Amino acid sequence: MARPVVLTLVLLTLPAIAHPQQPPYHVVGRISLAGEGGWDYLTVDTAAHRLYVSRGTHVAVIDLDRDSVIGDIPNTLGVHGVAFVRELNRGFTSNGRDTTVTVFNLTTLAPVAVVKVTGANPDAITYDPVSRRVFTFNGRGANLTALDPQSGTVVGTLELGGKPENAVSDGRGRMYVNIEDKSEIVAFDPRALKVQARWSLAPCEEPSGLAMDRKTRRLFAVCSNELMAVVDPDRGRVLATLPIGRGTDGAAFDPAGALAVSSNGEGSMTVVHEISPDSFVVVGTVPTQRGARTIALDERTHRLYTIAAQYGEAPAPTAEQPRPRPPVIPGSVVVVILER
C-alpha cells in the first residue's frame, strides 16, 4: 500500500513596512516683535496665559490667547529673565547691565520698585515656593542673591564658586544651578543659603539650560559641546548623555509627554523621551529658526516657544573682534510657536 504524501505548508512572515516617525513637535506660527536688538530668556505665566520676552532694555509681554503683544516693561537694562510670585501679584526681572531687579505688578505691568542685588550681572532668576524667595544668579559675581518678594529687600548672598547659569527648584526645599565655567551642578538649601553638594557633569561641558522632572527627580542639563546630561540629584551622578544640536542655551521638560527639550541656536530643538527614570532616548530633531537658543513651555497647552530673527552679513574681523557676530535685521525678530 502506498504511503500517503504529507505536505507541509510553510508560511513566510514578511517584515512590516516601517512608517516614518512623525516629529514630536512642529512649528504652528510666529509672532512678530517690533524694535531692534537681541533677546534672552522667555518665560510663560501659565495662570495669566502670558509670555514674557526679554529684549535687552525692556520686556515684551504677549497674550497667549490671542498671540499678540499687549504690553511692555521698560527700563530693564541688560534684562535676562523674569520670575513670578503669583500670590503677591508681582513679577521680577533680572537686569544684568545695572545689577538690579525690577519689581512690577503682574496685572498692570507697572514697575513697583527697583532692588540692587549683591553680584554683578544678574542673569537667571527663579522663584522658590518653599522658601518663598526670589533668587538671582549673578554671572560675573559668581554668586546668588536671595530676595524677600514681600518686602522687596535682599535677605542674603551665597557664593557659588563659579559662573551660574539656569537654576530650578525641586519644590521640596532644594535648588540646583548649573555652573558654566566649572561644568558642574551645585545643590543648595534656599532657606539656610548653604551649598549642600556639587558634582561634575563630565563629559558635558559649559552647561547653560536646566530643566527638571520633579516626579522622577531627574535633571536635564544642556551643554555647549552638543550634549544633554541627565542627572540623578539624590545620588549626585550623571546617568546618561544624549546628543543635541549646536548653540543651546535653554531646556524645558513637559511632564505630560515625559519629554525633555533642548533649544539650539543652530535652528533646531532636540527632543528626548524619558522612557523610565533610568532610560532616555532622542526621539526627534525639530527645525525651528536660526538663533532660537532659548525656550519656554506653556504647561497648560503644552506648546513650546522660542525666539529668533533674520541676520545680515557679519562685519570683517578685527583685532578687537576676531569673530564678529552678524547683525540682526531690524523688524525680523519673531517668537516661534511649536506644538505636538
Layout of helices and strands, plus pairs?
Layout: E1 26-32, E2 42-45, E3 50-54, E4 59-63, E5 68-73, E6 79-85, E7 90-95, E8 100-105, E9 111-116, E10 122-128, E11 133-138, E12 143-148, E13 153-159, E14 164-169, E15 175-179, E16 184-189, E17 194-200, E18 207-213, E19 218-223, E20 227-232, E21 237-243, E22 248-254, E23 259-264, E24 268-276, E25 279-287, E26 296-298, E27 303-308, E28 334-339
Notes on the protein architecture:
The structure is a single chain. The protein has 340 residues and is an all-beta fold. Helices cover 0% and strands 51% of the residues. The strands form seven sheets. A four-stranded antiparallel beta sheet has the order 1-28-27-26, with no helix packed on it. The protein has a four-stranded antiparallel beta sheet with strand order 2-3-4-5, with no helix packed on it. Strand 24 and strand 25 form a beta hairpin.
Helix content: under 10%
Percent of sequence in beta strands: over 45%
Helix and strand sequence: EEEEEEEEEEEEEEEEEEEEEEEEEEEE
Largest sheet: 4 strands, antiparallel
Query: What is the overall pLDDT average?
Result: 92
Q: What coarse outline follows from CA principal-axis ratios?
A: globular
Low-confidence stretches: 1-20
Biggest sheet strand order reads: 1-28-27-26
How many β strands by DSSP? 28
CA-CA gap between termini: 71 Å
Number of helices: 0
How would you name the oligomeric state of the polypeptide chains in this document?
single chain
Class from secondary-structure proportions: mainly beta
Instruction: Give Rg in angstroms.
Output: 23 Å
